[in-house]
Amino acid sequence: MRGGVQLNVPTALDDRRYPRGESTGMMHVHFDSGWQQFDGERALEYARSRESTSDFDRSRRQQLIMLAVRQRVFSLNAIPRLLSLLGALQDNVRTNLRPAQMRQLADLAGQFKDEDIRRIAIDTSNFLRSGYNSSGQYVLQPLDPTYDALHRYLAAAPVDRALLAARVPFQLQDGSGRYWLPYGIGTPASIMASLLQAQGLNARPGPATRLRVAQTQILDGSGGSAAATVAWLQSYFGGVVVPAAAPASGPSVTVLLGSDFTLKTFPAP
Question: Are residues 150 and 261 in the same domain?
Fold first, then answer.
């Protein structure tokens, strides 16, 4: 794309073994953190580099490139011109969408604001664990072998705009010691807080507690002012809503994760 794209690189990237074209040689590519101007070749290098990081990190970088391209396309009002090229590209693109449907999708995409777009990665920091299959091949497996935890999370997206706009803060606490997680990735409360933050909710992990509950509780000290958020949390986590006194400080809503949730979402392998 003429003029390239602008991208805010979150973390410096250094790869001394990036493939050199179609040859078997390697080259050194480096990207500083901060705002960068990328032409097409530079953007591909940033998106494809894999030797010095992980596949999960690479997927996040590819998401950033896609968002940057989207911003550039709409800033140039280039959609009509791109649609006019479809005829020339028909031998290289396979789709069952008709041109009119593509235009509808493009018009719909143009209505989204940047702040409406969420980037969520399902990886070994939340719902997956790494392992090997019976043939000795490296594979990713869900922590919950029934896939119910993953299905529940994806079904909850996207969260209603009105709920996100309310920005009601809430915290999550571990009320169950009954779960299994790989060493070092966190606790059920910290993992779920991060996942809900990715959805745009104002979630955070709460302080450690010695309370142990079998059934998840949503402790509501908002006096009814957070009713919509509390209802959403109950629909997602299940459990019971418990009226509580307003706290002296911190969020007025707390999700106390019980073993009914943790044993299903993070069971022992």
Answer: yes
Q: Sorting pLDDT into bands at 50, 70 and 90, what band is 10?
A: very high
Predicted confidence (pLDDT) per residue in 187-206, tens digit:
999 999 999 999 999 999 99
Domain membership of residue 138 (yes or no) is no
Structure token pair of residue 230: 């509390």
- Please state the pTM of the whole predicted model: 0.79
Convert the pLDDT of each residue in 197-242 to its tens digit. 999 999 999 999 999 999 999 999 999 999 999 999 999 999 999 9
Residue count (the chain): 269
For residue 255, the Cα-to-chain-centroid distance in whole angstroms is 21
**Host domain of residue 216:** 144-265
What are the two backbone dihedrals, phi and then psi, of residue 168, each rounded to the nearest 5 degrees? -70, 120
Whether residue 107 is found in the same domain as residue 188 = no
Q: Render pLDDT for 153-182 as a digit per residue (tens, 0 to 9).
A: 999 988 999 999 999 999 999 999 999 999
Residue 123 CA neighbour count, 13 Å, CB half: 13
For helices 99-111 and 55-75, angle between their N-to-C axes, nearest 10 degrees: 90
We report the CATH number of the domain holding residue 45 as 3.40.630.190
Helix ranges (H only) for the chain are 40-48, 55-75, 79-84, 86-89, 99-111, 148-155, 161-166, 188-198, 227-237, 259-265
